[in-house]
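Dear support,

We are seeing what looks like truncated structure output for some complexes. This example has two components. We would appreciate it if you could run it in full and send us the complete token output so we can diff it against ours.
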Amino acid sequence: MKQVNTKVAEIWTIGGGKGGTGKTFLSSQLATYLALKKKQVILVDSDFGGANLRYFFNIKKSEKSIKNFFINKEPLENLLSHTNIKNLKIITGDRNSISISTIKYSQKMKFLRHIKMLNADYILIDLGGGLNFNTIDVFLLADKMIVITVPEITAIDNLFQFVKNAYFRKLNFLLKKHKLKDAAKNIWKDRKIYGIKDVIDLTAYIKNNLDFDGSISNKISEFSIFIVLNKLRNPNEINQGFSIKSLCIKYLGISSIYAGYIGFDENFRKNLSLSDYLPKFNISTRIQKEITEIAENIINREQIKISSIKNA
Amino acid sequence: MHKQDYKKYFEILELKPGTTFSEVKEAYSHLKKLYSSNSFIFAPVEGTSEKGKRKKILEQIETAYAILSNYYLSEKKEKTQTIKTTVSDEHIPEFDVYDGNALKLTREVLGINLEEVAFFSKISLEYLKNIETERFDLLPPKAYVKIFVRKYAEYLSLDIKKVTDDYMKKYENKNKIEF
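Here is the complete output from our reference environment:
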């Protein structure tokens, strides 16, 4: 008999384009935080290429991974691994046997459908790096989309690309659904005539002229991202989160919230070193505090308080 | 302006309505600094066709901040008004004759700045200054002056009749000498 779903989980996806910005770290910490708040949490490592979430939870390689879903057609519920944290289960990713390019469209759609059906309060999905559309489609699945970056121009550049691609894909999808894709395409082609300079203008034009029942506008205004800055070495860098957010809003037309930041931690880096077979994580109280603020801001859709920065 | 009309100005400063004034100030100064700067952060988002965009953004930020400042000032005014009724008898100096200087002193004792008076009385700042300094030659015709003084006295919770009578007497005397 099929398991009946009793809860509708809230899905959080954690992406951001560039590798090494701390996606896996943030996902694991947010999942832990929510689980400690007595929520049922499932963390999915959807990094099809270079999954490494298991390192954060001491899970040995022999356990079942996402590979079993794609190759052996096992249901996702069977792939849950227990962790040392109560209420937190994870589905580990895979590094070799499946590559993004080999996942068929139907497989991907099935994956997206099945993730939604998992029984939990929260489902967190750790995305891989890169800007490919499979990653973006998983990102768009979320109720809350989170992007993480570090204060370096290359990472921030990737972040903008990632967010822009996601937004375009969503807009495209909506236009297609409402059979307006060709109309929008033609408007963009003749944008000079319409006085359209950028995506913001185009979206506004669609809203005012094509979107008669407001269904596209509603969906588009729901598109909102949470920004997290990681590996800050200098308190001055905290403000960069506000700058990134501002550019997302004013240049890309994407509603954005700066949810918080994580300072650089030397001990954490040591933890990830190769000296131990399985690293032990002693998260400093400072990082715990920062994670708490980020998680609460995401839960409540709140921006980081400027006053809390001043006391940092 | 209605309370919800401020929403778009909060949006320009990328804040939720109802944020504290200090958050508004912080957001304003950050945005102003960002869009006046030549930060490398613009490189990924700025196309070549968007040269005027930053200037336009800066203008919007300035407008939003000016309007929101007034909004917070008006909230403060509501508060000071309630305080005023209790404090007034003890601290506000009484004048035998209300002239421009008396108005100015009363206003200063109440801790109200002229911008605030201008915003709520809808009298231009310039005229208010001229009323205080008694530059009658720079004020509009008499009937207007009377209305302005009346509004000003009302805002300071003074005896409207006494203030306008005193002030207009002086206005007429001075004009007599000059003409």
